[in-house]
């Protein structure tokens, strides 16, 4: 005879089963994690060393700004505290930006590590030479007065050429393969490097014109020949920082990818317009 159990026997405790709704909710609560926003990639140790170098260069610029505030002296001209301040800050920020931005470019890790190592060392040499000459009270660039000044000036010139080559290699890598990253980052990286190439070209023009004037005996004219190109050089040099930083900040919002891409595209257009304006002004004043 088959016995069928229709319920608990008399006197037995009734088992308490969770309601159909509470158990799934409890499971969902334990497994739920808030959506992670896009974060900067964690860099390996060599790249952290490069970032530390960049921060030291920025600190050097700030220290010399304090020196200028305390000691005074001219801000403009071939001999001034402006140069160690602006070059320390500019090279530090640029090195910091390039270390981060190249993580989105498709460059082989060993090659990227080597190129960034040379780039970081070159930045230190450039800022170090400019700072040394500022403390000596003599011009850093285009100075051929003594053999030591000529050696420093030529070192800075060669260092500038090395910087141009390295940054051009990174720019070509960003255009060869689409950079990775959140919405708008590929456009920001490519546009930043493209505008940076304009800054490198203006820097090469300043060096070339100054060297020609120096070699032909017009030393004073060489010191002042770069004035018209400095705004173009300064504005275009930092696009590789501003535009990718904007794309990264937008990735931390909850706006759609389409909206974020359009904002980056508008920023690229505005930045390109500012570069074009300073380029026209430079040509008219050249």
Sequence-ordered SSE layout with sheet pairings:
Blueprint: H1 22-31, H2 45-71, H3 82-101, H4 109-136, H5 147-176, H6 185-215, H7 219-224, H8 230-237, H9 239-251, H10 257-285
Describe what this molecule looks like in 3D:
Helix 2 runs antiparallel to helix 3 (82-101), helix 2 packs parallel to helix 4 (109-136) and helix 6 (185-215) runs parallel beside helix 10. The protein is an all-alpha fold and 286 residues long. Helix content is 71%, strand content 0%. The longest helix is centred in the C-terminal third of the chain and has 31 residues, at 185-215.
Low-confidence runs: 1-5, 17-38
Structural class: mainly alpha
- The helical percent reads over 70%
Radius of gyration: 29 Å
- Counting DSSP E segments of at least 2 residues, the number of strands comes to 0
Determine the N-to-C terminus distance: 110 Å
Number of helices: 10
- Globally, the shape reads globular
- The secondary-structure element order is HHHHHHHHHH
Average pLDDT confidence is 83
Strand content: under 5%
Major sheet summary line: none
